[in-house]
């Protein structure tokens, strides 16, 4: 089964299905708010944006079955 990477790039959360953006499928969602990156409010907004990007990617590609993993840029990555 394929897995999409969830993460943050600049001011957007993303979901990337594939090795890279040129060859794969991607969705980006702007992170709402203007809180500093180190705050819990930014953390929640960034997580929400990445999750929304994943849902939109699933909706756009209904014939492909895939799950996700948290990339290094995701706020919850450990």
Determine the strand fraction and express it as a percent band: 25-35%
Q: How much helix, percentage-wise, in residues? A: 25-40%
Spatial strand order of the main sheet = 3-2-1-4
Major sheet description: 4 strands, mixed
List the secondary-structure elements in sequence, H or E: EEEHE
- What is the residue-mean pLDDT, rounded to a whole number? 96
- Radius of gyration (CA) equals 12 Å
What would you call the structural class? alpha+beta
**Total helical elements:** 1
How many E-type strands? 4
Distance between the termini: 23 Å
Shape: elongated
In the residues, how many domains can be counted?
A: 1
Q: Low-confidence parts lasting 5 or more residues at pLDDT below 50?
A: none
């Amino acid at each position: 089964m394929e897995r999409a990477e969830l993460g943050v790039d600049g001011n957007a959360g993303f979901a990337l299905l594939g090795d890279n953006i040129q060859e794969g499928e991607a969705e980006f969602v702007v992170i709402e708010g203007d809180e500093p990156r180190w705050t819990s409010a930014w953390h929640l907004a960034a997580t929400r944006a990445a999750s929304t990007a994943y849902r939109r990617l699933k909706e756009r590609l209904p014939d492909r079955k895939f799950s996700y993993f948290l990339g290094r840029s995701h706020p919850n990555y450990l």
